[in-house]
Task: inverse folding
């Protein structure tokens, strides 16, 4: 449903005589599929440890599903991205139902606001934020108790594009 | 605050789902995600709890008052029963018009024949009386 899925990727360096049981390293990766997940795993792991795909192996790749996908949560995302002239840290907040949806939103948002592509964005941390700790006003306005708002400009669309009439009898009204 | 806008997006607002597999069914807003989406649930009308964008949905005039935010499906069914929400919808002119439209669209040829005959009978009775009244007036 969300464009990205969250995967748990566990890998290690290949066992050698000096190191018969290498340490396992686990990462939670957001990627569209398992292939990209594994690729991103090695990208990050080789930045953090002396391990690369050629001299390592992936032990397991499992998709992590959201525990409560029908509860809305406020997610805080810490990320690092390359702009045209440098690399910066950021903290952004999203109101979504799953971690994967929040991260998908984040990538879309980064692309829109900062022209940052998937490869230039590194998600450092995704955490659910308590209502009291929300920092951004655009999320705070949605978590007030008793929230209600009108939909001022209603565009009546037919359920299917094929049901759209070329000519209509009355001028459509946008009042809801 | 909203002045001329009477239909607001709020927890407890009953909506009519326009597109998708649940088209034509009503559900209640249980929680608001953001400016464009809400979590909607219809335990008594066969609508699974889901996130719907407001573009796929029409707000109705019916609100379930003092519905707690993010209420569960079972307790929501109790609230709906108590406030007679589904009945209120079915009694509304809007729902009746939708129903009439559907019935007209699903008429068989024999039904259309019966309809034609009944309309003719109605016309006969009414026009006779109109003609008599006209004669009296003239």
Result:
């Amino acid at each position: 449903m969300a464009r990205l899925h969250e995967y748990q990727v566990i890998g290690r360096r290949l066992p050698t005589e000096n190191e018969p049981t290498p340490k396992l390293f686990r990462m939670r990766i957001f990627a569209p599929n398992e292939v990209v997940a594994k690729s991103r795993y090695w990208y990050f792991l080789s930045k953090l440890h002396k391990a690369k795909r050629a001299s390592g192996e992936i032990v397991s790749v499992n998709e992590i599903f959201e525990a409560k996908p029908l509860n809305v949560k406020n997610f805080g995302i810490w990320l690092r991205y390359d702009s045209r002239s440098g690399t910066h840290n950021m903290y952004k907040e999203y109101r979504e139902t799953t971690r994967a949806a929040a991260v998908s939103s984040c990538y879309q948002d980064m692309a829109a606001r900062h022209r940052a592509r998937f490869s230039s964005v590194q998600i450092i941390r995704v955490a659910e934020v308590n209502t009291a700790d929300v920092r951004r006003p655009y999320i705070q306005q949605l978590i007030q108790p008793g929230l209600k708002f009108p939909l001022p400009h209603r565009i009546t669309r037919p359920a299917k594009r094929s049901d759209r009439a070329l000519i209509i009898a009355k001028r459509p009204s946008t009042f809801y | 605050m909203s002045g001329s806008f009477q239909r607001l997006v709020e927890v407890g607002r009953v909506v009519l789902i326009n597109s998708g597999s649940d088209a034509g069914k009503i559900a209640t807003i249980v929680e608001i995600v953001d400016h464009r989406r809400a979590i909607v649930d219809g335990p008594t009308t066969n609508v699974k709890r889901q996130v719907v964008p407001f573009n796929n949905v029409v707000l109705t005039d019916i609100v379930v008052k003092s519905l707690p935010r993010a209420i569960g499906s079972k307790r929501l069914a109790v609230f709906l029963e108590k406030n007679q929400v589904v009945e209120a919808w079915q009694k509304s002119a809007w729902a009746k018009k939708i129903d009439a439209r559907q019935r007209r669209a699903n008429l068989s040829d024999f039904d259309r024949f019966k309809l034609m005959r009944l309309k003719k009978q109605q016309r006969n009775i009414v026009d006779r009386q109109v003609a008599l009244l006209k004669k009296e007036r003239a």
Observations:
- Helices of chain A lie at 34-48, 99-114, 137-140.
